[in-house]
Amino acid sequence: MKKRPPTDPRKRKGLIIVNTGEGKGKSTAAFGLAVRAAGHGMKVFIMQFMKGQWKAGERNSFARLSPYIEAVPMGDGFTWDTQNPEQDRATARKAFEIAKEKLMSGEYELVVLDEINYVLNYRFLPEDEVLETLKSKPAHVHVVCTGRNAPEKLIEMADLVTEMRIVKHPFGEQGIPAQKGIEF
Ligand code: ATP
Ligand code: MG
């Protein structure tokens, strides 16, 4: 066991956290932090980039943790159509503007930008702009960025970076279908 770090509530520092890598668990780890923060009565905002809707398990849990957790899928009210890159770029922009406003408001103590790394990989948003936004966020706000292939510059500026490494996945050679509560 690692030694526990000292705790001092006066030394509050909003962390930039990155969950990346090929293995499963990037988003669920971010949602785990959201649950932990909500347990302290901290306000959490979660924006899901890339995917249209939440999986049922997440959506229902977030609803139960309201008002501590507020979660918005990018597909909410916007059309997400991977056949149309222009439209996807516009959708990513709208989602980012909402997330940015929540982040900059300082009202949320934890902001999760789920799958933002995909948006950056696909160049749906300019990397520099997203990184600048993270740099200028209110000092007390923690931010989590998830998704494979986190940009190098994001990794450099982050305080906490974890790479999920696949050792086994049930979808692979084992051919086990998606399980309720694990995948959705
Ligand atoms: P989760 O949402 O379960 O935490 P994740 O955020 O790490 O997963 P994503 O890249 O967002 O992973 O992909 C989400 C979906 O893809 C999940 O259903 C997950 O099980 C599946 N997945 C993730 N990693 C792998 C993998 N290495 N092989 C096959 N499927 C995977
Ligand atoms: Mg994910």
Description:
By secondary structure, the protein is of the alpha/beta class. The chain has a single domain, classed as P-loop containing nucleotide triphosphate hydrolases (Rossmann fold, 3-Layer(aba) Sandwich). 35% of the residues lie in helices and 17% in strands. It has a six-stranded parallel sheet, with helices on both faces. The protein is globular, with a radius of gyration of 16 Å.
Summary tags:
single chain; 184 residues; alpha/beta; Rossmann fold; six-stranded parallel beta sheet; 6 helices; 6 strands; 35% helix; binds adenosine-5'-triphosphate; binds magnesium ion
Record the SSE blueprint:
Layout lengths: L15 E6 L4 H14 L4 E5 L7 H9 L4 E5 L11 H21 L4 E5 L1 H6 L5 H9 L6 E5 L5 H6 L2 E5 L20
Parallel strand pairs: 1-5, 1-6, 2-3, 2-4, 4-5
Bound molecules: adenosine-5'-triphosphate and magnesium ion.
Adenosine-5'-triphosphate (ATP) binds next to helix 1.
Compact summary:
By secondary structure, the chain is of the alpha/beta class. It has six helices and six strands; from the N terminus they run βαβαβαβααβαβ.
